[in-house]
Design a protein that fits this description.
The complex is a heterodimer of chains A (175) and B (641). Chain A has 175 residues and is of the alpha+beta class. Chain A contains two helices and eight strands, in the order H-E-E-E-H-E-E-E-E-E. Chain A has two domains: 57 residues; 112 residues, Sandwich (Immunoglobulin-like). Chain A starts with a helix and ends with a strand. Chain B has a domain of 190 residues: Alpha Horseshoe (Serine Threonine Protein Phosphatase 5, Tetratricopeptide repeat), CATH 1.25.40.10. Helices cover 74% and strands 0% of the residues of chain B. Classes of the chains: A alpha+beta (175), B mainly alpha (641). The interface between A and B is large, with 45 and 52 residues.
Chain lengths: 175, 641
């Protein structure tokens, strides 16, 4: 008899255990929702902080960004880029395979974000890598830019010139 | 994303939560907005957090309008990746409501369907997926058909599921997995003929692909146990013997082969695979079961002495395993599993790199592979990793605040210093005096125009000559009273006439030149006035701007502190949830081994009893009624609910 009672007790305990387990499962969506809401809050705050930092460190009247993009990019294997403004080096970047892949797929890299005084400036970019026939290749491109009170965006583009079978390095100033 | 559908097959720890397939449809697209290009650059490097930040900032500052709906689709996909289903849903629903192209609508419905599917809302997923028309890429269409087939299976609509599977003819990889899922679903529902037929197709596949080989093993094990349940042991061994000996399912296959021979009463042969398993690691549930099956079969064969030895061996092993499990339970309670699940280096693409296809080093992980491979657990784990990264990100921001305050303080004191020296600068008053001079000049020009006063348009040289001529005229008038100066007077008149003629015929260009110079002066003055006003405005606004920044930073700092507390709390809740799930899983395992241990001990006692009783006398405890393949093993094989 005692044995049967013990068995019932075990069964009851087992049921209560199972119940608590299923109760926990029912509660899980609440945590899931909390996680979802929290993630959104963090993403929103991150955006706000990003904007605040940009406003504080790079105000529009001095903000200057340089971007780099590739069109096809089969005729030039980019290793590094060096950027000078008015003869002064402001940025150097060595590329990883992952970055090159991202550029070839259409991504645009912000190589530099900084401040610059109003007026005219000379921007020189040097590209180092392997050209057609896998030979060492180094080319430079120069552009005169004028900074106004609006942010200035310059895009450096590496383009395959298929008719000449040579890479081309172009610059574009975005409004 | 194929990985998510290989239910129960995953040998990898973390199924790929790759989002490329639903976030970016076209690659090498024309970039019309650098900000979108930048978001793509990070997206392609699996830096989803930076990518999402880029898009959110762009949307806040000045929405990207030159890339059609691509940025919205990317943002929706990224929200989906981060598990922000509501936000993702808002974006995709917005795209549908905004009367976008059929292609965009298809992509939006596809993503909504996928989202519901991942949330186990199969009926809703089915509704969304059937709204897609025919603009999806081949790969995505195959994924849609696979999801559709699975949603039909969940609703037990096998004919509709079969129709979807038939649509996958051009995508064998998807079709095989879909057939596997359907075969298992049919067997579970009791339709053994159709179910085993589908699984047999997979079993007969010839492939060199490791993933498909793993699926074949899984299929053969499922078929083997299905036939054992149907009491068709010969068919069972046929499929179980096809399982690779060095695969993760080999123990289960060997165990099944033993059971199949046992069903045929070929006890000698049944012992062969089980004896092979005897020396395998006891952590495997199939090995645990074989330890009990061996002495039971020996007993049946009348080899009681040998059976005693094997029962004792089994009891010893179960004891050891229970001790090991106690250690594991203790370790999990002490945070060992969480430590193993936490990434060593927290980067934004930790999930994409560190945990892909890799089990973390831990004593508890080998006991939990079922749990760790489940999609639900992986979702919890992904959320956990996401939150750890987000907390790190918040802490990074928190560290920046002191620098911001210092920067503001420095700028403010520099400004005050500059303001003092600027306010005393005499050049500030120069603009006003220049403005007065300009006004006088304008009046003069106006007068020239009204009076057609050509003298005022004469050059300095001409004015000098005219002045000399005027003096000559005075002299001539005085001298003419005394003598005849008519010839000189005539010459004077001629010179003066010529001079005035030159100036008057040149009036228009001279007046235009003066007017033009006045305009230029106006422009230059305008710039100076604006600069002065800007300077005054800056002087006035700067303190306000400093105060504004200070307030903004302070507010953000407050919000950040609140969120940090919240995130720490939620991370701790998630850790508890992970630990709880692990403990439940380990306790189930513990109970299973305890059960084996009890049965082995009971059988040992029973056998001793029998051996000590006089010949011909039996007692009612002489049989172990439960002895057959355990429910867990059959469940593992996938053929039992």
């Amino acid at each position: 008899m005692l044995h049967i009672k013990f068995k019932h007790l075990i069964t009851a305990l087992l049921f209560s255990f199972l119940f608590s387990a299923s109760y926990a499962e029912e509660k899980a969506p609440a945590l899931e929702t909390q996680v979802q809401n929290l993630k959104k809050e963090v993403l929103d705050l991150n955006k706000e902080l990003f904007i605040l930092e940009e406003d504080l460190l790079f105000p529009a009247n001095t903000q200057f960004s340089i971007f780099l993009s590739m069109d096809i990019g089969n005729l030039f294997e980019l290793d590094s880029v060096q950027i000078n403004i008015d003869g002064k080096n402001i940025s150097n970047h060595l590329y990883t395979e992952r970055e090159i892949k991202a550029l070839k797929r259409g991504g645009v890299q912000r190589v530099y974000l900084g401040n610059i005084a109003s007026g005219k400036h000379e921007l020189v970019a040097f590209f180092t890598g392997k050209g057609p026939s896998k030979r060492d290749y180094k080319r430079g491109t120069t552009i005169e830019i004028e900074k106004t009170s609006s942010p200035l965006f310059v895009e450096l583009k590496i383009i395959d010139n298929l008719s000449k079978q040579q890479p081309e390095f172009k610059t574009k100033v975005w409004e | 994303m194929i990985q998510l559908f290989k239910q129960g097959i995953a040998t990898a720890f973390i199924a790929s939560f790759a989002i490329n397939s639903f976030a970016v449809e076209r690659e090498s697209q024309q970039i019309n907005d650098l900000r979108y290009g930048e978001a793509l650059y990070h997206f392609y490097q699996e830096q989803y957090f930076t990518s999402i930040t880029n898009l959110m900032v762009a949307k806040h500052r000045n929405p990207i309008i030159t890339q059609d709906v691509d940025p919205e689709l990317l943002l929706g996909g990224l929200y989906l990746y981060y598990g922000l289903h509501q936000n993702a849903s808002n974006i995709f629903s917005g795209l549908i409501e905004n009367n976008t192209s059929e292609e965009v609508q298809d992509r939006a419905w596809f993503n909504i369907g996928k989202m519901r599917y991942q949330g186990h809302l199969y009926s809703g997923a089915n509704q969304a997926l059937t709204k897609v028309k025919d603009t999806l890429s081949d790969e995505r269409e195959a994924e849609r058909q696979n999801m559709l087939a699975n949603t039909y299976l969940k609703q037990k609509d096998f004919s509709a599921a079969y129709e979807s599977i038939n649509q996958l003819n051009a995508h064998q990889d998807w079709q095989i997995y879909a057939k596997y899922n359907m075969g298992i679903a049919l067997i579970k529902s009791g339709d053994n003929v159709e179910g085993t037929q589908l699984l047999r197709e997979i079993s007969h596949l010839k492939t060199d692909d490791d993933e498909l080989k793993a699926l074949k093993d899984k299929t053969n094990v499922a078929l083997g146990y299905a036939y054992i349940r149907q009491k068709v042991p010969k068919a069972s061994t046929h499929f179980l013997e096809k399982v690779r000996l060095k695969g993760p399912l080999s123990a289960k296959a060997l165990l099944g082969i033993g059971w199949a021979y046992q069903q045929q009463n070929n006890l000698e042969k049944a012992l062969i695979p089980w004896m092979e398993l005897r020396d395998w690691p006891v952590i495997d549930t199939a090995v645990q079961e074989s330890l009990l099956a061996i002495p039971y079969t020996l007993e049946q064969m009348g080899k009681n002495q040998l059976a005693l030895q094997h029962y004792t061996y089994a009891i010893e092993n179960y004891k050891n395993e229970l001790e090991s499990l106690k250690d594991v339970l203790k370790a999990v309670k002490g945070g060992e599993l969480l430590f193993a699940l936490r990434p060593a280096i927290i980067t934004e693409n930790v999930l994409a790199t560190e945990y892909k296809n890799k089990l973390p080093e831990s004593i508890s992980v080998p006991y939990l592979h079922h749990l760790l491979n489940s999609v639900d657990f992986q979702t919890i784990h992904k959320n956990y990793l996401d939150l750890i990264y987000l907390r790190k990100n918040l802490l990074n921001w928190k560290n920046q605040f002191s620098a911001y305050y210092l920067m503001l303080k420095e700028r403010s004191s520099y400004y005050k210093k500059q303001q003092r020296s600027t306010s005393n600068d005499s050049r500030l008053n120069l603009v006003n005096s220049l403005k007065k001079k300009r006004d006088q000049l304008a009046i003069k020009v106006q007068k020239i125009k009204q009076q057609k006063n050509i003298h005022d348009l004469a050059s300095e040289d001409e004015k000098e000559i005219l002045s000399s001529l005027s003096k000559i005229k005075t002299s001539l008038t005085r001298l003419s009273k005394k003598d005849d100066y008519s010839e000189e007077t005539e010459k004077y008149n001629l010179f003066r006439g010529l001079m005035l003629w030159d100036i008057s015929t040149d009036y228009a260009p001279r007046y235009w030149k003066v007017k033009n110079e006045l305009n230029q002066l106006d422009k230059a003055l305008d710039v100076s006035v604006k600069s002065l006003e800007s300077l005054k405005q800056s002087s006035k606004n700067a303190p306000l701007a400093f105060a504004g920044y200070y307030k903004r930073i302070k507010n953000k700092e407050k919000t950040l502190d609140k969120l940090l507390n919240k995130i720490t709390y939620i991370i701790s809740s998630q850790e508890k949830q992970i630990e709880k799930q692990a403990l439940i899983s380990l306790q189930q395992r513990f109970r299973q081994i305890e059960n084996y241990h009890t049965r082995a001990s009971y059988s040992l006692a029973r056998l001793y009893d029998r051996m000590t009783l006089p010949a011909g006398i039996t007692n009612d405890t002489d049989k172990d009624p439960d002895h057959q393949p355990s429910v867990e093993i059959i469940k593992d094989a996938g053929v039992k609910k």
